[in-house]
Specification:
Blueprint lengths: L20 H32 L5 H66 L4
């Protein structure tokens, strides 16, 4: 079991969030493996307790549950960061498409494209 105490577990700042999507994905995968390993260790300790009729070390159990909770919190933060980065990339692409279409089509055709896009948006349930 990983017994490392992370800085944010002691009430300090939250972990640094990555600035690119690939790093987010890498950290998410790593955290998912860590979470699975902790859950496996907790399950194995519980099965051993049931088989032998003994007790689980309370200090170890508390540390394992705390580590699991903190890793789950970090996973949620990373997943939210990945969604944010993905949305930002999509918005950048949309801005580039708009710039190209506006430059290539001229103002009248641009207005026609906007009208068609708005009609399509409304037909798909947009406001």
């Amino acid at each position: 079991m990983d017994s490392t105490i992370l800085p944010y577990q002691e009430g300090q700042d939250k972990p640094d969030l990555p600035s690119d999507m690939e790093e987010c994905r890498t950290r998410i995968i790593s955290l998912q493996f860590d979470i699975a390993a902790i859950r496996d260790q907790l399950a194995a300790a519980d099965m051993e307790r049931q088989a032998n009729g003994g007790r689980i070390d309370a200090v170890w159990f508390r540390r394992a549950r705390s580590a699991l909770r903190f890793k789950r919190e970090a996973l949620v933060l990373l997943q939210e960061r990945l969604r944010h980065l993905s949305t930002a990339k999509k918005n950048q692409l949309k801005e580039c498409i708009i710039a190209v279409v506006r430059r290539e089509y001229g103002e009248d055709k641009w207005r026609a494209v906007l009208d068609q896009a708005h009609q399509l948006f409304v037909s798909h349930g947009g406001a």
